[in-house]
Please model this.
Amino acid sequence: MSMLEIKNFGKQFTIHHLDKTMQAVENINFSLEAGEFIGIVGKSGSGKSTILKSIYRTYLPDSGSLLYDSERFDKIDLSKATERQMLYLRKYEIGYVSQFLNVMPRTTSRQLVEKALLETGEPEWVARREAEKALTHFELDPKLWDTYPTTFSGGEKLRLNIAMATVKKPRLLLLDEPTASLDQQSKMKVREIIEKLKANGTNLVGIFHDIEFMESLCDKVFDMKTRQLITEAQAGVANEG
Model:
Protein backbone atom coordinates (compact mmCIF):
# COMPACT_ATOMS: atom_id res chain seq x y z
CA MET A 1 0.00 0.00 0.00
CA SER A 2 1.30 3.47 -0.91
CA MET A 3 2.00 5.78 2.02
CA LEU A 4 2.67 8.70 -0.34
CA GLU A 5 1.86 9.12 -4.04
CA ILE A 6 3.28 12.08 -5.92
CA LYS A 7 1.53 12.60 -9.25
CA ASN A 8 2.51 15.17 -11.92
CA PHE A 9 3.83 17.49 -9.21
CA GLY A 10 5.08 20.92 -10.24
CA LYS A 11 6.10 24.14 -8.48
CA GLN A 12 6.78 27.66 -9.79
CA PHE A 13 8.26 30.68 -8.07
CA THR A 14 7.52 34.29 -8.99
CA ILE A 15 10.24 36.94 -8.72
CA HIS A 16 7.99 39.95 -8.27
CA HIS A 17 10.55 42.74 -8.69
CA LEU A 18 11.55 41.21 -12.03
CA ASP A 19 7.97 40.30 -12.93
CA LYS A 20 9.24 36.85 -13.83
CA THR A 21 8.00 33.32 -13.08
CA MET A 22 10.42 30.40 -12.93
CA GLN A 23 9.58 26.70 -13.04
CA ALA A 24 11.42 25.15 -10.10
CA VAL A 25 10.32 21.57 -10.74
CA GLU A 26 7.74 19.76 -12.86
CA ASN A 27 6.45 16.33 -13.90
CA ILE A 28 7.48 14.53 -10.69
CA ASN A 29 5.91 11.11 -10.19
CA PHE A 30 6.81 8.49 -7.60
CA SER A 31 5.24 6.43 -4.82
CA LEU A 32 6.50 5.63 -1.34
CA GLU A 33 5.24 2.25 -0.23
CA ALA A 34 4.57 1.44 3.41
CA GLY A 35 7.84 0.74 5.24
CA GLU A 36 10.08 2.26 2.56
CA PHE A 37 12.84 4.87 2.49
CA ILE A 38 13.26 6.76 -0.80
CA GLY A 39 16.35 8.89 -1.36
CA ILE A 40 16.28 11.80 -3.84
CA VAL A 41 19.44 12.69 -5.76
CA GLY A 42 20.32 15.33 -8.32
CA LYS A 43 22.32 18.49 -8.94
CA SER A 44 21.94 21.58 -6.77
CA GLY A 45 18.98 23.60 -7.95
CA SER A 46 17.21 20.60 -9.47
CA GLY A 47 14.27 20.94 -7.06
CA LYS A 48 14.99 18.26 -4.46
CA SER A 49 14.23 20.46 -1.45
CA THR A 50 11.21 21.94 -3.22
CA ILE A 51 9.62 18.48 -3.28
CA LEU A 52 10.13 17.95 0.45
CA LYS A 53 8.95 21.43 1.38
CA SER A 54 5.83 20.95 -0.72
CA ILE A 55 5.05 17.64 0.99
CA TYR A 56 5.41 19.44 4.33
CA ARG A 57 3.44 22.33 2.80
CA THR A 58 6.04 24.98 3.52
CA TYR A 59 5.46 25.57 -0.20
CA LEU A 60 2.06 25.29 -1.86
CA PRO A 61 2.26 23.13 -5.00
CA ASP A 62 1.12 24.66 -8.32
CA SER A 63 0.17 21.43 -10.09
CA GLY A 64 -0.37 17.74 -9.48
CA SER A 65 -1.26 15.96 -6.26
CA LEU A 66 0.53 14.73 -3.13
CA LEU A 67 -1.62 11.91 -1.76
CA TYR A 68 -0.73 10.93 1.80
CA ASP A 69 -2.28 7.97 3.64
CA SER A 70 -3.02 9.67 6.97
CA GLU A 71 -3.87 7.82 10.14
CA ARG A 72 -6.36 10.57 11.04
CA PHE A 73 -7.68 11.75 7.66
CA ASP A 74 -7.25 8.60 5.52
CA LYS A 75 -6.12 9.45 1.95
CA ILE A 76 -5.55 13.22 1.80
CA ASP A 77 -4.10 15.44 -0.92
CA LEU A 78 -1.53 17.56 0.91
CA SER A 79 -1.70 20.18 -1.83
CA LYS A 80 -5.35 20.79 -0.93
CA ALA A 81 -5.34 20.13 2.82
CA THR A 82 -6.57 22.93 5.08
CA GLU A 83 -4.14 24.78 7.35
CA ARG A 84 -5.79 23.12 10.35
CA GLN A 85 -5.23 19.68 8.82
CA MET A 86 -1.60 20.47 8.07
CA LEU A 87 -0.98 21.71 11.61
CA TYR A 88 -2.35 18.42 12.91
CA LEU A 89 -0.25 16.35 10.50
CA ARG A 90 2.95 18.23 11.37
CA LYS A 91 2.28 17.79 15.06
CA TYR A 92 1.35 14.10 15.03
CA GLU A 93 2.28 12.38 11.76
CA ILE A 94 4.84 14.16 9.55
CA GLY A 95 8.31 15.22 10.67
CA TYR A 96 10.81 17.41 8.84
CA VAL A 97 14.55 17.80 9.36
CA SER A 98 16.56 20.44 7.50
CA GLN A 99 20.16 21.57 7.88
CA PHE A 100 18.90 24.78 9.49
CA LEU A 101 17.46 25.31 12.97
CA ASN A 102 14.54 27.68 13.46
CA VAL A 103 13.42 27.72 17.08
CA MET A 104 11.62 29.88 19.59
CA PRO A 105 13.96 32.41 21.29
CA ARG A 106 14.90 31.95 24.94
CA THR A 107 14.01 28.25 24.87
CA THR A 108 16.63 25.73 25.97
CA SER A 109 17.62 22.64 24.03
CA ARG A 110 15.97 20.36 26.56
CA GLN A 111 12.74 22.40 26.46
CA LEU A 112 12.63 22.28 22.66
CA VAL A 113 12.81 18.48 22.53
CA GLU A 114 10.37 18.14 25.43
CA LYS A 115 7.95 20.52 23.69
CA ALA A 116 7.89 18.27 20.60
CA LEU A 117 6.51 15.47 22.78
CA LEU A 118 4.27 17.58 25.02
CA GLU A 119 2.48 18.79 21.86
CA THR A 120 1.44 15.21 21.14
CA GLY A 121 -0.10 14.80 24.61
CA GLU A 122 2.73 12.95 26.36
CA PRO A 123 2.98 13.60 30.13
CA GLU A 124 5.81 15.81 31.37
CA TRP A 125 7.79 12.96 32.93
CA VAL A 126 7.75 10.99 29.65
CA ALA A 127 8.72 14.07 27.64
CA ARG A 128 11.63 14.78 29.98
CA ARG A 129 12.86 11.17 29.92
CA GLU A 130 12.65 10.81 26.13
CA ALA A 131 14.21 14.24 25.55
CA GLU A 132 17.22 13.29 27.66
CA LYS A 133 17.54 9.96 25.81
CA ALA A 134 17.44 11.75 22.43
CA LEU A 135 19.96 14.43 23.43
CA THR A 136 22.27 11.74 24.81
CA HIS A 137 21.97 9.61 21.67
CA PHE A 138 22.96 12.50 19.43
CA GLU A 139 25.84 13.34 21.77
CA LEU A 140 24.82 16.88 22.60
CA ASP A 141 26.96 17.86 25.59
CA PRO A 142 24.80 17.80 28.78
CA LYS A 143 26.23 21.23 29.59
CA LEU A 144 24.25 22.52 26.59
CA TRP A 145 20.91 20.96 27.48
CA ASP A 146 19.75 23.92 29.56
CA THR A 147 21.24 26.66 27.38
CA TYR A 148 19.84 28.47 24.35
CA PRO A 149 20.91 27.00 20.97
CA THR A 150 21.53 30.40 19.34
CA THR A 151 25.26 30.10 20.11
CA PHE A 152 25.61 26.44 19.07
CA SER A 153 27.88 25.35 16.25
CA GLY A 154 26.31 24.22 12.99
CA GLY A 155 26.77 20.56 13.91
CA GLU A 156 25.25 21.04 17.37
CA LYS A 157 22.22 22.82 15.91
CA LEU A 158 21.72 20.05 13.37
CA ARG A 159 21.91 17.31 16.01
CA LEU A 160 19.32 19.20 18.07
CA ASN A 161 17.11 19.60 15.00
CA ILE A 162 17.23 15.86 14.32
CA ALA A 163 16.48 15.06 17.98
CA MET A 164 13.39 17.31 17.90
CA ALA A 165 12.02 15.67 14.73
CA THR A 166 12.77 12.03 15.51
CA VAL A 167 11.77 11.93 19.19
CA LYS A 168 8.08 11.89 18.13
CA LYS A 169 8.61 8.82 15.92
CA PRO A 170 6.56 10.27 13.03
CA ARG A 171 4.75 8.10 10.47
CA LEU A 172 6.44 10.04 7.63
CA LEU A 173 9.84 11.69 8.08
CA LEU A 174 11.29 14.13 5.53
CA LEU A 175 15.06 14.57 5.64
CA ASP A 176 16.59 17.56 3.83
CA GLU A 177 20.36 16.93 3.92
CA PRO A 178 20.34 16.06 7.64
CA THR A 179 24.03 15.11 7.69
CA ALA A 180 25.33 18.19 5.84
CA SER A 181 27.53 19.61 8.62
CA LEU A 182 28.12 16.50 10.73
CA ASP A 183 31.34 14.57 11.32
CA GLN A 184 31.48 10.85 10.57
CA GLN A 185 30.68 9.78 14.13
CA SER A 186 27.59 12.01 14.24
CA LYS A 187 26.49 10.72 10.83
CA MET A 188 26.55 7.19 12.22
CA LYS A 189 24.31 8.30 15.10
CA VAL A 190 21.83 9.68 12.56
CA ARG A 191 22.03 6.44 10.61
CA GLU A 192 21.31 4.41 13.76
CA ILE A 193 18.17 6.38 14.57
CA ILE A 194 16.95 6.24 10.95
CA GLU A 195 17.38 2.46 10.92
CA LYS A 196 15.53 2.19 14.23
CA LEU A 197 12.68 4.45 13.09
CA LYS A 198 12.36 2.53 9.83
CA ALA A 199 12.27 -0.79 11.68
CA ASN A 200 9.47 0.59 13.86
CA GLY A 201 7.32 1.68 10.91
CA THR A 202 8.40 5.21 10.02
CA ASN A 203 8.36 5.92 6.26
CA LEU A 204 11.09 8.24 4.95
CA VAL A 205 11.95 10.49 2.02
CA GLY A 206 15.40 12.06 2.16
CA ILE A 207 17.99 14.13 0.31
CA PHE A 208 21.65 13.22 0.77
CA HIS A 209 24.79 14.36 -1.06
CA ASP A 210 26.72 11.71 0.85
CA ILE A 211 26.11 8.69 -1.37
CA GLU A 212 28.01 6.37 0.99
CA PHE A 213 25.55 7.28 3.73
CA MET A 214 22.64 6.25 1.50
CA GLU A 215 24.04 2.83 0.62
CA SER A 216 21.97 -0.02 2.07
CA LEU A 217 19.81 2.55 3.88
CA CYS A 218 17.42 3.61 1.10
CA ASP A 219 15.11 1.10 -0.55
CA LYS A 220 14.84 3.18 -3.74
CA VAL A 221 16.46 6.28 -5.20
CA PHE A 222 14.65 8.90 -7.27
CA ASP A 223 16.88 10.63 -9.83
CA MET A 224 15.85 14.23 -10.57
CA LYS A 225 17.59 14.14 -13.96
CA THR A 226 15.82 11.11 -15.40
CA ARG A 227 12.65 11.39 -13.23
CA GLN A 228 13.01 7.68 -12.47
CA LEU A 229 13.46 5.41 -9.47
CA ILE A 230 16.91 3.89 -9.96
CA THR A 231 19.50 1.72 -8.21
CA GLU A 232 22.06 3.12 -5.74
CA ALA A 233 24.91 2.52 -8.18
CA GLN A 234 23.20 4.63 -10.84
CA ALA A 235 22.45 7.25 -8.20
CA GLY A 236 26.15 7.79 -7.59
CA VAL A 237 26.67 8.66 -11.25
CA ALA A 238 23.62 10.95 -11.27
CA ASN A 239 24.80 12.88 -8.23
CA GLU A 240 28.20 13.54 -9.79
CA GLY A 241 26.67 14.75 -13.07
About this structure: The domain at 36-60+82-240 is CATH 3.40.50.300 (Rossmann fold).
